[in-house]
Amino acid sequence: MPTHAEQRLIAYTPEQLFDLVADVGKYPQFLPWCVKAIVKSRTETELVADLTIGFGPFRETFTSRVTLERPSRIRVSYEKGPFRYLNNVWTFTPDPRGCLVDFFVDFEFRSRLLQNAIGVVFNEGVRLMVSAFIKRARDTYGTPHVTPRAQPDLTKA
Question: Which keywords are on file for this protein (predicted)?
Fold first, then answer.
């Protein structure tokens, strides 16, 4: 049952970071191990998407329901696929230096083989994923303008 919680100060606005995370259809362009994303339905406050993740010899597709609470929170709940459960929450809090991002993920695969395989690389995988979003923000919005009080490495992954 891998669980990960992380908080990062990132020098972009909550709205910008919210939009990046909410743009699920573009995940295969920049997220490690995300090989396919299909948004099946979308409203202003919710979307349902199929994501296919692949690592090593494993490839699994799952459906999740994403609740969009613009611009402060994105909640991901599991619908169907290889997991027993999946919970993921992104929280975006304004800060004078940018945005304080809280990221939480908790899941368990049905298959012990998959669970054991991901367990070995889970923490590194989550760090890579968060770094991929930060890089995507730089690629999309350019180099942030950080105030002198800000930490110099706000966007370094």
Answer: Ubiquinone
